[in-house]
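Following the same procedure, backbone shapes were mapped to integers, as reproduced here:
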Amino acid sequence: MAAITKTPSNTWKAIIRKRGWPTTVKTFRTKRDAEDWARGTEDEMVRGVYINRAGAEKLLLEFKDVRRAIFLPAISLCHSCVIAQLY
């Protein structure tokens, strides 16, 4: 059974402790999201198909930040060139 608690920053934290599985924690903006995630994750654990995605999610967020830092300035520059050519 997951424990859903409200954090001081007004988000909701779902903590799953299940024998034979690592403790799994994730934070959400709404209680319903936390409950839905916990229910799905516990179901995966019971069926034996759970994969801890925390590291992959962190890596994806870091990749998005790097991509944004590299490509957005280039896109803005290209967009400015196109607009300048129109005038």
User: Anything to note?
Assistant: Residues 54-86 form the longest helix (33 residues). Residues 53-87 form one domain.
